[in-house]
Design goal:
Blueprint lengths: L10 H56 L1 H7 L7 H20 L4 H25 L7 H92 L3 E9 L5 E9 L2 H6 L3 H4 L4 H4 L7 H12 L3 E9 L2 E12 L2 E8 L1 H37 L3 E9 L5 E9 L4 H4 L3 H4 L4 H4 L8 H10 L4 E9 L2 E12 L2 E8 L1 H11 L3 H13 L5 E7 L4 E4 L1 H6 L11 H5 L7 H14 L5 E6 L5 E13 L2 E10 L1 H53 L5 H28 L9 E4 H11 L1 H7 L2 E4 L4 E4 L1 H17 L8 E10 L13 E9 L31 H11 L3 E6 L5 E8 L2
Parallel strand pairs: 17-19
Antiparallel strand pairs: 1-2, 1-5, 3-4, 4-5, 6-7, 6-10, 8-9, 9-10, 11-12, 11-15, 13-14, 14-15, 16-18, 19-20, 20-22, 21-22
Helix pairs in contact: 1-3, 1-5, 3-4, 4-5, 15-16, 20-21, 22-24, 24-25
Enzyme class: transferase
Protein name: histidine kinase
InterPro entries: HATPase_C_sf (IPR036890), HATPase_dom (IPR003594), His_kinase_dom (IPR005467), HisK_dim/P_dom (IPR003661), HisK_dim/P_sf (IPR036097), PAS (IPR000014), PAS-like_dom_sf (IPR035965), PAS_fold_3 (IPR013655)
Length: about 850
C-alpha cells in the first residue's frame, strides 16, 4: 500500500501567505497613522503660535488706550472719527481671529467672551472721554480724571485676562511641543520596527513551511514503522465484484507483519491474493458480511471474533473503516482480555459468596433495628474547601423516627440535615456531632425537642464511622419527668434515678449466631459484657451459656430450644440469667433461621429488659391504683347524681302543683320569679344528666363494633328532625367511613356537634352544616405523640353560625366552660367536653377553629380499622 503525504493541498501555505499580507497591510497602516499623528502635533504647535501672535496684537491694540499720548492722538478733535472707528474695527478683527483659534478650548473661549465685553466697555469709555470739552474748567477736569481712572481699571482687567490666556497657552504649547517631539522621534523607530517585524514573519513562515515539510516526511516514515511494529493486524482490502455488481470477495492490497505472527502467513504472499483464499473460513460468515456492509454503507463496523491457530484459541476485536475505495481492517488481539474476563467471572462468583455472608450480617442488623425502640441514624460529613464540616447528609434512618418527627425515612434519605432538621445548627447538637468525628471518640449528650408545644427530652450517643457519625437516640422524657417528681420526695431517690438514667443511655443489646449442625455459637462482645465477662473470657457454646440461665427458667429455656431445632422456627421469649457477679437480669431473645452455605443458622439478638420489666411492674401498680380511683369516682358519681336528682324531682313536683293551684293569683313580678325558678330547675336537671353522661363514657371499653358513620348521621338527623325543619337547616356530607367504635358514643358525638351548630346559628341566614372525610397519615395529627395508628380518618364539621374567637379553642372543650351567658343561649357547658372524651376514648383527637361571625369548624381524627 502506497502511503502518500498527508498535506496534498496548499491550504496551509495559503493561510501563511494571507497572514503575511495582513502583517504588511498592518505595517503600512501603522506608518500612515504615525505620520498623521505627527502632522496633527505640528498643526497644534502652529495653532499655539498663532494664538501667541493674536494675543500680542491684542496687547498692542489696547496699549494705545493705555498711553495718554497715543490716546490723545487717537481722540484729537481735529482728527477724523474714522481713526477711532478703524481702531475699534482693528480690535474686532483681532478678537475674531482669536475666537477661531481657540474654538476647541472652552476655558479660553470663555476668557475671550469676557475680553470682548471689557473691550466694548473700553470703546464706550474712550468715546465718553472724547465728548468732554477740551477747554477745561475745574468741573470738567475732575470728570476727565475720573473717566481716565475708569479706563485704567478696564485696562487692568483686560491685562489680567490676557495674562491668564498667555499662561494657558504656555501650558498647551509645552504639551503640544512634547507631543510633537515624541511623534517626531518615535515615527522612524516604529516604521523600522514594523518593517523588521514583517521581514521576521516572512522568514519564520518560510522556515516553518520547510520544517512542516520535513515533519510530514518523518510522519510518513513513522507511520510505516508503526504499521511494521504494531501488535495489531492492519490490512487494506479492495472489493471484487461479479457481473451483477455484487461483492464476491476482497483483494488484499496491504498487510503488515502481524499477519505472520498471528496467522502464520507472510505479508508479501498475501498481497494480491483474495481474502477468502487466505482466510477460507470467512466464507458465508457473519464477519465477511460485516466487511461487505461496511463498504456498501460507508459505515464503520466493530465486532469480535474467535480464531484458532497452532492449536491455540485467540480472540480478536476488529475495526472496519471505509477508506479510498476499499476497507481498512484493524484487528486487535484481545486474548488476554478474554482470559481476564474469565478470571473476573471466577472472582465474581467468589464475590457473590461473600455477598451472601454480607446479607447474613444485614439480616442480623435489620433484626436488631426492629427489636430496639431507639432511633438509629447515620450522617455523612459535608465539608467546605478548607475541610471544615459545614453540614451532614442523611444516609440512614430507621422507622422509629416517624412517630417522633412524622418524617418517612425514605423521604428524608440523601437530604442534608440543614434542610430536614435546621434547628440543630442553633443548638449544641451540631458541635457534639463534629466532636465525635474530629476527636474520634463517642459523645453522649441530651437535647430537647418541642412537639405541639410540649418539650420532649432525648438522649443520644454519637460514634464516628468513616467520615460520618452514627447516632443512637432514645426518648428520656418520662425518665426526666419521673426524676423531677421524685426529687420533691427524697434526695436518695433523686440520686438513684440519676444513676438509672445514666446507665440506660446506651442500648443494652447483644447478638448471636447458632450453627444447628455443629451445635456451636458465636456471640458479640456486648453479649459477653451483659453476662459480666470481658469479650472472649469463656468459650462460646450452648452449654456454657446454659450455666448462666436462672434455675427456675431452665425448663422454659430448654423447651424453647427443642421447639426451635425441631421446627426451625424461633419465637420471641424472655428468661432470666445470673451474671458473673451474681446479678439477675431479664433477657429478651428474638431470632430467625437462615441458610448459610447450605447449613441452617439461627441469628438473633438478646436485649437486657431488666429495667423495662421493673418499669412495667411499677406501671402495673400505678394502673391498679388508677382503676381503684376510677371505681371510687364512678361510685361517687352514681351516688351524687341519685342524691341530687331526688330532691330536684321533688322541687319540680311542688313547682308544678303550686303553678296549678295558685298560678293565676301570682302578680306580674311573682310570675317572672316563678318562671326563673322553673328554668333553674330544668337547667339543674340538664346539668346532672350531662354530668352523668360524661362520667359514664368508659375509656377502657373494649367491645368495639364496626360502625358505619353514615348510619350514625342518619340516626342523628332523624332525632333532630324537628329542630332541623324549624331552622330550615341544610346538612350535607360526603361518604363517611366505617370505623371500630361504640355506636351510642358516636351518635352522641355527632348529635352534640350538629346540635351546637343549630343552637349557635346565624341570625341572618339558615344554618348550613357540612361534613367532609378523608384518609390521612399519622404525621398530620396536630400532636404527633398521640399517633397510635399509621393512618387516620379526618372528619371535618363546618357550619356558618356565629363562630367564636380562636383563642378560646381549648377552653370550649372543658367541663362547664361557656363563651356566652346562659340568658343568651341555653346549655350546660358539658356537650363539647363529652365530644372530646368520646374521641379520646376511641384513641382519636379533636380540635376546633373559628372566627366571630364567620362560623366554626370542628376537626376529628379517628384511627382506621
Amino acid at each position: 500500500m502506497d502511503f502518500k503525504p498527508a498535506h496534498k493541498s496548499s491550504k496551509f501555505y495559503f493561510v501563511v501567505s494571507i497572514i503575511a499580507l495582513l502583517l504588511l497591510i498592518f505595517t503600512t497602516f501603522m506608518a500612515y497613522l504615525q505620520v498623521k499623528q505627527m502632522q496633527k502635533a505640528a498643526e497644534m504647535v502652529s495653532r499655539s503660535l498663532h494664538v501667541y501672535n493674536g494675543i500680542s496684537n491684542l496687547t498692542a491694540h489696547y496699549t494705545q488706550a493705555d498711553s495718554e499720548e497715543l490716546r490723545d492722538e487717537l481722540l484729537k478733535p481735529d482728527k477724523s472719527s474714522f481713526a477711532f472707528d478703524n481702531y475699534r474695527e482693528e480690535g474686532r478683527v483681532i478678537m475674531d481671529s482669536l475666537n477661531g483659534l481657540v474654538r476647541d478650548n472652552p476655558p479660553q473661549t470663555k476668557r475671550l467672551q469676557d475680553m470682548q465685553l471689557l473691550l466694548n466697555d473700553l470703546y464706550k469709555q474712550l468715546q465718553d472721554l472724547d465728548e468732554t470739552d477740551y477747554e477745561i474748567d475745574s468741573t470738567i477736569s475732575q470728570y476727565r480724571e475720573a473717566q481716565k481712572s475708569i479706563i485704567s481699571i478696564t485696562l487692568f482687567q483686560i491685562r489680567t485676562i490676557k495674562n491668564e490666556m498667555l499662561v494657558e497657552e504656555q501650558k498647551l504649547m509645552l504639551k503640544r511641543q512634547n507631543s510633537y517631539d515624541s511623534s517626531k522621534s518615535l515615527a522612524p523607530i516604529i516604521l523600522l520596527f514594523l518593517a523588521l517585524f514583517a521581514l521576521l514573519v516572512f522568514v519564520l513562515s518560510f522556515f516553518r513551511i520547510y520544517k512542516n515539510k520535513l515533519q510530514i516526511r518523518q510522519s510518513e516514515n513513522f507511520l510505516k514503522s508503526v504499521l511494521a511494529t504494531t501488535d495489531n493486524v492492519v490490512n487494506y482490502y479492495t472489493p471484487i465484484f461479479d457481473e451483477e455488481g455484487a461483492i464476491i470477495d476482497f483483494r488484499i492490497e496491504f498487510a503488515n507483519a502481524c499477519n505472520r505472527d498471528y496467522f502464520g502467513v507472510e505479508p508479501d504472499f498475501m498481497i494480491g491474493k483474495t481474502v477468502l483464499f487466505i482466510f477460507p473460513y470467512l466464507k458465508d460468515s457473519v464477519d465477511f458480511e460485516k466487511m461487505k456492509s461496511s463498504y456498501l454503507n460507508n459505515d464503520k463496523v466493530k465486532f469480535e471474533s474467535e480464531f484458532t491457530a497452532n492449536d491455540s484459541k485467540m480472540w480478536f476485536q476488529s475495526f472496519i473503516t471505509p477508506l479510498s475505495g476499499g476497507i481498512l481492517v484493524t484487528a486487535r488481539n484481545i486474548t488476554h482480555e478474554e482470559e481476564a474476563k474469565s478470571m473476573q467471572l471466577r472472582l465474581r462468583k467468589r464475590l457473590e459468596s461473600q455477598n451472601l455472608q454480607l446479607l447474613d450480617g444485614r439480616a442480623l442488623l435489620a433484626n436488631i433495628f426492629k427489636s430496639i425502640s431507639h432511633i438509629v441514624m447515620h450522617f455523612k460529613s459535608v465539608r467546605n474547601e478548607e475541610g471544615k464540616i459545614i453540614d451532614f447528609k442523611i444516609l440512614f434512618v430507621n422507622d422509629r423516627i416517624t412517630p417522633i418527627t412524622g418524617h418517612n425515612p425514605e423521604e428524608i434519605k440523601n437530604k442534608n440535615v440543614s434542610e430536614v432538621y435546621p434547628d440543630i445548627f442553633t443548638s449544641e447538637v451540631i458541635g457534639n456531632l463534629v466532636d465525635a468525628i474530629e476527636n474520634k471518640k463517642p459523645v453522649t449528650y441530651n437535647f430537647p425537642f418541642n412537639r405541639n408545644g410540649n418539650s420532649h427530652w432525648f438522649s443520644a450517643t454519637a460514634i464516628k464511622l468513616g467520615d460520618g457519625v452514627t447516632i443512637t437516640v432514645r426518648e428520656t422524657t418520662a425518665e426526666i419527668d419521673k426524676a423531677n417528681e421524685l426529687l420533691k420526695l427524697n434526695e436518695q431517690l433523686v440520686i438513684r434515678n440519676s444513676i438509672l438514667t445514666d446507665a440506660e443511655s446506651i442500648a443494652k443489646i447483644g447478638s448471636f449466631s447458632w450453627y444447628i449442625e455443629s451445635n456451636t455459637t458465636e456471640i458479640s462482645d456486648n453479649f459477653y459484657r451483659m453476662l459480666g465477662h470481658e469479650p472472649g473470657e469463656f468459650e462460646s457454646n450452648l452449654e456454657s451459656f446454659r450455666n448462666f440461665v436462672h434455675p427456675d427458667d431452665l425448663e422454659l429455656y430448654d423447651k424453647k430450644g427443642e421447639i426451635s431445632i425441631q421446627g426451625l422456627v424461633s419465637d420471641e421469649f424472655m428468661y432470666r440469667v445470673i451474671t458473673k457477679n451474681g446479678e439477675i437480669k431479664f433477657l429478651n431473645t428474638n431470632g430467625q433461621f437462615i441458610d448459610k452455605n447450605g447449613s441452617k443458622v439461627m441469628i438473633g439478638v438478646v436485649q437486657d429488659v431488666t429495667q423495662t420489666i421493673s418499669d412495667a411492674e411499677e406501671l402495673r401498680r400505678s394502673n391498679l391504683d388508677l382503676q381503684q380511683s376510677n371505681l371510687e369516682l364512678e361510685s361517687f358519681n352514681r351516688v351524687a347524681s341519685h342524691d341530687l336528682q331526688e330532691p330536684l324531682r321533688k322541687i319540680q313536683l311542688f313547682i308544678s302543683r303550686i303553678e296549678d293551684v295558685d298560678g293565676a293569683a301570682f302578680s306580674e313580678k311573682g310570675t317572672t320569679y316563678f318562671d326563673k325558678v322553673k328554668k333553674a330547675a330544668l337547667r339543674m336537671q340538664g346539668l346532672i344528666q350531662n354530668l352523668l353522661a360524661y362520667s359514664r363514657i368508659d375509656s377502657s371499653k373494649t367491645d368495639l363494633d364496626h360502625i358505619d358513620l353514615n348510619d350514625v348521621l342518619d340516626k342523628v338527623q332523624e332525632d333532630l328532625a324537628t329542630t332541623i325543619n324549624d331552622t330550615q337547616a341544610e346538612i350535607t356530607s360526603e361518604n363517611l367511613p366505617q370505623i371500630k367504635g361504640v355506636f351510642f358514643q358516636m351518635e352522641q358525638l355527632f348529635a352534640n356537634l350538629i346540635g351546637n351548630a343549630l343552637k349557635y346559628k346565624s341570625n341572618t341566614e339558615a344554618p348550613i352544616i357540612q361534613l367532609q372525610s378523608e384518609k390521612v397519615a399519622a404525621s398530620e395529627l396536630p400532636d404527633k405523640s398521640l399517633g397510635k395508628s399509621k393512618f387516620y380518618y379526618k372528619i371535618t364539621c363546618t357550619d356558618n353560625g356565629i363562630g367564636f374567637d380562636s383563642k378560646y379553642s381549648d377552653k370550649i372543650f372543658e367541663v362547664f366552660q361557656r363563651l356566652h351567658q346562659k340568658t343568651e343561649y341555653s346549655g350546660t357547658g358539658i356537650g363539647l367536653a363529652i365530644c372530646r372524651k368520646i374521641v379520646e376514648n376511641h384513641n382519636g383527637y379533636i380540635y376546633a377553629t373559628g372566627k366571630l361571625g364567620a362560623g366554626a369548624q370542628f376537626v376529628i381524627f379517628l384511627p382506621t380499622k
